[in-house]
C-alpha cells in the first residue's frame, strides 16, 4: 500500500502541535505512540492506518521532532530562526497500487533549510524553506503556517491552524509526473509544473499529569490542478486523522 506521503502529513501536523504546547518545559524528552488514518491522492490507494513510535526532544537550542532535527541559531522572546534537516516520507513503490505498476519507484529525500517562527496576532506563525540535499528530486519546498488557540486551560489546549505549502516544479514532477518510458495506453506522459496546497485543521492536547498527555488532530488539505491533472491521481484533496499518547521523561 502507498504509505509514505500520508505518513509524512500526519507527522507534520503532530510536530507542529506537540512542539508548540505551552504546557511543556523548555528542555524535555518525550516518547509516544501515534495511531493515524489517512486518505490518498493516488489512484487505487484507499485509506491506510498506522501505529508509529515517535521521539520528541527539545534541549536548549537543539530539537529533534521525529523526522526533523534542527538548531536555533537565533532565539528571541517572540521569534526564532533555525537551521533544520529532515527526512521526508514522500514517494511510492510501483507495487503500492495497480495504477502505479510500471512506474519507477519515487524515493524519499533528505531536505535542509531555514525555519522562522514568530508570535503574531495572538498566535504562532512558522515559515519554512527547504531544499533537497540528497540528489533525489532536486527541488525545494516552501511552507507557511499559522496556529492559534481556541480553548486553553492548565490541563488542555485546543488550537486551529491553517496555511499553504509550495512545491517547486522539479519536486512536483518527480512525485506526480509520468515519463515517456513509464507511459501506457491509459497513463499518458505528464510533466508537472510547480504546485501548491492549502490546509486547515484542529489540534488538541490533554495532559493527564506531569508525565502523560494525549494529542489528537484532524487536518484537511487541497492541492492545485497540477496534482489533480496527473494520471497517477484521482482526487486533489486529502484528510488526515491521528491520536497519540506521550510520556515525558
Concise description?
The chain is 11% helix and 51% strand. The protein is mostly beta strands and 249 residues long. It has a domain at 68-201.
For the biggest β-sheet, the strand order reads: 1-2-3-4-5-6-7-8-9-10-11-12
Can you give the helix content as a percent range?
10-25%
Strand content: over 45%
Measure the end-to-end span: 35 Å
Largest sheet: 12 strands, antiparallel, barrel
- List the secondary-structure elements in sequence, H or E: HEEEEEEEEEHEEHE
Mean pLDDT: 86
How many beta strands in the DSSP annotation?
12
Shape by Cα distribution: globular
Alpha-beta classification:
mainly beta
Low-confidence stretches: 1-10, 16-25
Secondary structure tally, helices? 3
Radius of gyration, whole Å:
18 Å
Give me some keywords for this one.
single chain, 249 residues, mainly beta, 12-stranded antiparallel barrel, 3 helices, 11% helix, disordered N terminus, membrane, cell outer membrane, Structural protein MipA, MipA, signal
Amino acid at each position: 500500500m502507498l504509505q509514505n506521503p500520508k505518513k509524512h502529513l500526519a507527522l507534520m501536523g503532530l510536530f507542529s502541535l506537540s512542539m508548540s504546547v505551552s504546557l511543556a518545559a523548555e528542555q524535555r524528552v518525550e516518547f509516544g505512540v501515534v495511531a493515524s488514518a489517512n486518505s490518498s491522492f493516488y489512484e487505487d490507494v484507499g485509506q491506510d492506518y498506522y501505529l508509529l513510535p515517535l521521539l520528541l526532544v527539545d534541549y536548549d537550542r537543539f530539537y529533534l521532532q521525529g523526522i526533523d532535527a534542527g538548531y536555533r541559531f537565533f532565539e528571541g522572546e517572540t521569534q526564532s530562526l533555525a537551521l533544520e534537516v529532515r527526512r521526508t516520507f514522500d514517494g511510492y513503490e510501483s507495487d503500492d497500487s495497480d495504477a502505479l505498476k510500471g512506474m519507477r519507484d519515487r524515493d524519499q529525500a533528505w531536505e535542509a533549510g531555514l525555519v522562522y517562527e514568530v508570535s503574531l496576532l495572538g498566535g504562532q506563525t512558522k515559515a519554512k524553506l527547504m531544499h533537497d540535499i540528497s540528489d533525489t528530486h532536486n527541488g525545494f519546498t516552501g511552507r507557511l503556517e499559522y496556529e492559534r488557540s481556541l480553548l486553553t486551560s492548565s490541563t488542555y489546549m485546543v488550537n486551529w491552524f491553517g496555511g499553504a505549502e509550495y512545491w517547486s516544479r522539479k519536486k512536483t514532477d518527480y512525485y506526480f509526473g509520468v515519463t515517456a518510458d513509464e507511459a501506457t495506453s491509459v497513463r499518458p506522459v505528464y510533466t508537472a509544473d510547480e504546485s501548491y496546497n492549502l490546509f486547515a485543521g484542529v489540534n488538541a492536547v490533554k495532559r493527564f499529569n506531569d508525565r502523560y498527555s494525549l494529542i489528537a488532530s484532524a487536518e484537511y488539505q487541497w492541492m492545485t490542478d497540477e496534482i489533480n491533472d496527473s494520471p497517477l491521481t484521482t482526487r486533489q484533496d486529502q484528510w488526515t486523522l491521528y491520536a497519540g499518547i506521550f510520556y515525558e521523561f
